[in-house]
Amino acid sequence: MLQTFENLDAEKKRRILNAAMEEFVAKGYKQATTDDIVARAGISKGALFHYFGSKDRLYVYLMDFVLDTYRRRINERTNFNEPDFFIRLHQMLQGKMEVSIAYPDLVAFWIKARGESSDIVVAHLEKRITALRPQMQDFLANIDYSRFKDSLDIPKTIKVIFWTFEGLSNEIVERAKSSQELLNLEKEFAEVEEYIQYFRILFYKEKW
Amino acid sequence: MLQTFENLDAEKKRRILNAAMEEFVAKGYKQATTDDIVARAGISKGALFHYFGSKDRLYVYLMDFVLDTYRRRINERTNFNEPDFFIRLHQMLQGKMEVSIAYPDLVAFWIKARGESSDIVVAHLEKRITALRPQMQDFLANIDYSRFKDSLDIPKTIKVIFWTFEGLSNEIVERAKSSQELLNLEKEFAEVEEYIQYFRILFYKEKW
Amino acid sequence: MLQTFENLDAEKKRRILNAAMEEFVAKGYKQATTDDIVARAGISKGALFHYFGSKDRLYVYLMDFVLDTYRRRINERTNFNEPDFFIRLHQMLQGKMEVSIAYPDLVAFWIKARGESSDIVVAHLEKRITALRPQMQDFLANIDYSRFKDSLDIPKTIKVIFWTFEGLSNEIVERAKSSQELLNLEKEFAEVEEYIQYFRILFYKEKW
Amino acid sequence: MLQTFENLDAEKKRRILNAAMEEFVAKGYKQATTDDIVARAGISKGALFHYFGSKDRLYVYLMDFVLDTYRRRINERTNFNEPDFFIRLHQMLQGKMEVSIAYPDLVAFWIKARGESSDIVVAHLEKRITALRPQMQDFLANIDYSRFKDSLDIPKTIKVIFWTFEGLSNEIVERAKSSQELLNLEKEFAEVEEYIQYFRILFYKEKW
DNA sequence: AATGAATGAGTTTTCATTCAT
DNA sequence: AATGAATGAAAACTCATTCAT
Fold first, then answer.
1. What does the alpha-carbon distance between residue D20 and residue D37 come to, in Å, rounded to a whole number?
2. B20: which residues sit within 8 A by CB, 6+ positions away?
3. C8 in helix, strand or coil?
4. Would you tell me how many other CB atoms lie within 10 Å of the CB of residue D44?
5. Residue B150 to residues A191, A200, B201, D193: CA-CA distances in angstroms?
6. Could you tell me if B98 and B70 are in contact, meaning their C-beta atoms sit under 8 angstroms apart?
7. How far apart are CA A120 and CA C175, in angstroms?
8. Please, are residues C84 and C74 in contact by the beta-carbon 8 Å criterion?
9. A84 CA to F5 C1', in Å?
10. Confidence of residue D97 (pLDDT cuts 50, 70, 90)
11. In which band, very low, low, confident or very high, does the pLDDT at C58 lie, cut at 50, 70 and 90?
């Protein structure tokens, strides 16, 4: 079934996935209707169920698609031999940002997805998030922690850094939403870099 | 209409609000059914609509109730003349935590609400969040910023601190969800205090 | 039960009947709500059911009230010894018009009522309309038909006359509805008199 | 949506429209239930809303259908070059009568519809009735008024004639309703012709 | 493979009527 | 007698999914 979908030409696939993401973002899982998705995608009702079998499975497919897209791009951008925490962080955030520019609905879809309650969605989400944890380990491997000030509690410090970038990216999304403007991602990334610079001075020993 | 609800005895009101919050938390706005809410609350279908008029307005009432409950408790706990940022922060987080212990569904409800797409919910949310901003100004008034190290970028520093506690509280909720255990809030608050202590050392001049 | 209602002071009775008629006219039998009726009348829900027992019985009471009001006024105005058909007709239409001025909702209520479908309403209507027929006999008794031209088919002639005034009064109501203006009954009655004059010339022998 | 309905085969369309008219006639707009309509029509609930979108729009569709059916048949039967008023009138009433024989519910539906209070129904009714007025102009065009007695007030005369046939057709319907019999339209039309003959003698000059 | 009409269980909301106070 | 909160059956409408073509 999913194979049928994979065999479509890339353009049609993209059109269908975008249509679905837009609709799910606009209305949430339950309120989104398959009627509107097929209308946006320009395909027939039958086709959608032919490809994905059910609304559930379409949603699950999208979640996997989003995660894979992020992971692939981040892995491409990140040099896992780079021992400098902040350079590595910069690479990762760069990868994330690039994906956000290329597929703007993807970010919004992912944020929405994390708040969903439909049983099957929640179950799949949990499985995939667990699968992400080792990924995190990879990111932190080979880091030269000796560059951090000796007095620091390293685990706490890393958490503070990650929460900051989570909070910052939420704030950027909110700001865009309330001002009704499109994200100017280059300007936003400058802000990201400011915080990286701020943390570098705050947490690294002087010579770095 | 709402007056009719306010006239009920406190215990019945609590039962109804809790029933509604539990249902909305478990299933999200759209999937939650008024049938299940009245069953949980032990009232008739008619009564619910007698009190709130519609599912929409029940949800809006709950959002206001949550915000008011938090605001009231935080205002009670916080001494707005206390010039020490971290003592003030401690007071505020203490207030938040107390509410979370007394009304555990409230936290979960609020997190869910922020991800909803139903038009009326989104609109109301936006209005209330805007109304919260001056509140934030109050919290930061009369703080003695001279206790922070001179080299610090104060606005960034404050943002980092708030995002950290936002991230920490999300993590605590997630942890509870995946371990299926009730929150042991006293233990969790110890963790909050650890981070306060960590920041105090990191950001304050030595003598404080 | 109805006795309880009859014992009320006249002003309160009038207020309740008017409130009910306004509501039924505005929305029709089924769409009218007892909530709105008690709100308009300024009495409690319980009172309404105390007086009339049910919505059905309130409606039936109103139908009887309307018919009795018309009948009483028409009987007062009509001289049943007057042998001239057109003078008698003028008296009757005068009586009708007076009621329409005194209780404007009454007319509208009656027109609405005749189009209703609720079983109990239809049944009662039929009974009352049958009871009205002898009334019609009274109206036509003692008329001096020798004043009509000899060539005329009298039964047909009388039907044409009644249908004309039915049609005219419908047209007046429609005209008022579409122009959103209040009925100027004096002007309208001049029109009625024009048609009476037209018929008198058309149907009566020359000397009358 | 309506297109979907138009695409159905004629027999199914007829079945659905008849079912809806019967139900609306029997119970009126508000009391009629979509459940009963689909049961009568032998289609699913979903199908009805697939075709018409809402109960409102189904009702509006029926009103248009009734008017179009009448208009089409009357236009077919009427010779708009015929200068004789009564021949033209005969043609028109003949057309009306034919429709009433072919679609008996149509008459009943139309009478009911004129008494309805539902906002959308009233609004549509008003629009359609206004649209009918030019139609009336057409009917009266090219009439040779010189055949009427010179002393007559022509506008009043025409009104009297139309109100008579309106009253007569209402009486025929009432009579049928109270005797629980089907309309024997051929016999009824003989009555219509009697009145035409009566008016011809009353209003035309001798030689006609 | 693709279409889109048809299905019907499931949901919110209304409102006449009852009944404890 | 009067109140008005509470009840719950009934009704319009939705939409994922199926299936004949």
1. 5
2. B37, B41, B58, B62
3. coil
4. 10
5. 22, 17, 14, 108
6. no
7. 62
8. no
9. 69
10. confident
11. very high
**Ramachandran bin of B16, using left for φ above 0, alpha for ψ from -120 to 50, beta for the remaining angles:** alpha
Nearest to D174 by CA among C63, C126, C138: C126
Among candidate residues D195, D83, D198, D82, the one with its CA nearest the CA of residue D147: D83
Residue C208 has pLDDT above 80, yes or no: no
Token digits for B120?
């009326």
Q: What is the distance in angstroms measured between the alpha-carbon CA of D178 and the sugar C1' of F8?
A: 37
- Nearest C-alpha neighbor of C42 from the set C8, C73, C72: C8
Question: Smallest Cα–Cα separation from B152: which of A202, A180, D13?
Answer: A202
Instruction: State chain D's mean pLDDT as an integer.
Output: 89
d(CA B61, CA B55): 10
Residue D46 clears pLDDT 90, i.e. is over it? yes
| pLDDT tens for the 208 residues of chain B, in order | 888 999 999 989 999 999 999 999 989 899 999 999 999 999 999 999 999 999 999 999 999 999 999 999 999 999 999 999 999 999 999 998 888 877 778 888 888 887 787 778 888 888 888 888 788 888 888 999 999 999 999 999 999 999 999 999 888 877 876 776 666 777 888 999 999 999 999 999 987 7
CB within 8 Å: D166 and C164? no
Provide Rg for chain C, Cα atoms.
20
Tokens encoding C198: 């037209």
> What CA–CA distances, in Å, run from A101 to A25, A41, A96, A184, C90?
16, 21, 9, 9, 85
DSSP secondary structure string for all residues of chain A: -HHHHHTS-HHHHHHHHHHHHHHHHHHHHHH--HHHHHHHHT--HHHHHHHHSSHHHHHHHHHHHHHHHHHHHHHHH--TT---HHHHHHHHHHHHHHHHHH-HHHHHHHHHHHT---HHHHHHHHHHHHHHHHHHHHHHTT--GGGB-TTS-HHHHHHHHHHHHHHHHHHHHHHHHHHTPPP-HHHHHHHHHHHHHHHHHHHB-TT-
Residue with CA nearest C1' of nucleotide E19 = C46
Pick A28's closest partner by Cβ from B30, B164, B198: B30
DSSP3 helix / strand / coil % (chain B, rounded to 5): 80, 0, 20
pLDDT tens digit string along D152-188?
Answer: 999 999 999 999 999 998 888 778 767 766 667 778 8
**A111: CB partners within 8 A, 6+ apart:** A173, B115
Q: Look-up: residue for tokens 């208009």?
A: D71
- Look at residues B93, B69, B104 and name the one whose alpha carbon lies nearest to residue B176: B104
Q: Is A191 part of the contact surface with chain B (CB cutoff 8 Å)?
A: no
CA distances from B118 to A28, B32, B34, C191 (A): 8, 13, 16, 58
Name the helix (H) or strand (E) containing D55.
helix D55-77
Residue B204 bridge partners (DSSP): B148
Global confidence as pTM: 0.83
pLDDT band at C97 (very low <50, low <70, confident <90, very high): confident
Distance CA B36, CA B114 (A): 22
Q: Which among D116, D159, D160 has the least Cβ separation from residue C28?
A: D116
Q: Do chains C and A touch (3 or more CB pairs under 8 A)?
A: no
Listed residue (A38, A35, A34) closest to A55, CA to CA: A34
- Phi, psi of D33, deg, nearest 5: -115, 145
Domain ranges for chain A: 60-203
Please tell me the predicted confidence (pLDDT) of residue A181.
Answer: 67
pLDDT at A35: 95
Pick from C189, C172, C190: nearest CA to C181:
C172
Question: Is C195 in Cβ contact with D28 (below 8 Å)?
Answer: no
The DSSP-derived string for D125-183 is HHHHHHHHHHHHHHHHTT--GGGB-TTS-HHHHHHHHHHHHHHHHHHHHHHHHHHTPPP
